[in-house]
Amino acid sequence: MRRGWVRLAASAAIFGVLVWRLGTGPFLDGVRTVDGRALAAAAGLALVTTVACAWRWKIVASGLGVQLSLPGAVAAYYRSLFLNLTLPGGVVGDVHRGVSHGRDVSDVPRALRGVAWERLAGQAVQAVVTVAVLLALPSPVQSSMPLIAIAAVAVAACVVLAARAHGRFWRAAVADIRDGLLARRAWLGVALASAVVVVGHAATFVIAARTAGVTEPTSRLLPLALLVMLIGVVPSVAGWGPREGGAAWVFAAAGLGAHLGVTTAVAYGVMALVASLPGAAVLVVSWCRRTRLPVRAESRRRGSSTCLSAHTPS
After folding, report:
1. pTM of the prediction?
2. Of 18, 101, 168, 238, which has the fewest beta carbons less than 10 angstroms from its beta carbon?
3. The total number of structural domains that make up the chain
4. Which of 192, 202, 201, 203 is nearest to 56 (CA)?
């Protein structure tokens, strides 16, 4: 709970600095510039990326021995996205998704591990794709990318060594990775689904940039989009704060202006939030079902009691 408040405070601090330096104009422009076509495009891309995420989750969960249907996974993932985008912490939806699935299959710990490995696999593929694009295409950090890539590999190696120092944890992690991520046919599906998600989110960011008035070619916008999205992974409140701060820095370094970067990031956030609204519908339906079940059970119990009373000899 304390971490959630820390993230909220950090996001608010970043917003405060941006408002102090740039004013409220970029934020208001980001909201005003979003139109119906942009929202429709974002909703369509969100459908594709959510199905891809759900498929990835299904693959990983099945590998760990907890079965999951694709329609159920899609509905749960929409609900998860909506909660992540509306509640502090940015991971509440994922925890809820794992716990709900775990209760359905009577194995909460294994289901939570499935969600954690699924998200980690997606972020790993996103990092690899981002590094590859930033190495290949011009960007403000292109000259530093070789050193950044080496540093990333070094950090990954340190994480592996630290995990190996805890034998029990290491053995459990290796088993999960082997069964859930690297099993036959699983790794290809996980990689493909993750790549679709990265492309879909990047396309949404490019649409947000166009909506904000950016006219640069897509080949120049793509590295900026991937870099901003990678910064948005930093623990915060659904990416708000770090994403806007990162966009301000990236766009300014690229010569497009910090104002335009913040406007684009805000437009992207609005589009993502609207595209997640089917998750709110899933929440309402789930709540209605939970409230109806006890009522039906109580009605059946009363009916049974009435029947028994009617057949009891006087």
Report:
1. 0.86
2. 168
3. 1
4. 192
